[in-house]
Amino acid sequence: MGKAYYVKFETPEDLVNPILEAVRVASTSGKVKKGTNEATKAIERGTSKLIVIAEDVEPPEVVAHLPILCEEQGAAFAFVPSKQELGKSLGIDITSAAAAILDAGDAQHIVDQVVSSIAKIKGGKTDQ
Questions:
Q1: Where, by residue number, does the polypeptide cross the bilayer?
Q2: Which of 47, 50, 59, 123 is 20 to 30 A removed from 72 (C-alpha atoms)?
């Protein structure tokens, strides 16, 4: 099965672990919002450092608005293959379709690296 229609670009495998690590570290040392609704609010308020969206969300309409909203608001965003892994990185026992890093805490250098890498993947467009 191909990627969901809302996945705007292919996240390289070597970038997935740093993204999940950034979420993991930021959730303990910074501030992270869990879930699609919280991520949406963070984008709209302009408080997100990085939005992380799972690629395996069913139905896809749940998160389909996030990449569009991120592009409109100039927010950095990235995709991870699994909502299960995203949930684990957030330190919760359930899946999470999306997350918003508001304060990276000790993960700031990882977030900066991810945002920079994503900008290059997207063709040099800067999101922040």
A1: none
A2: 59
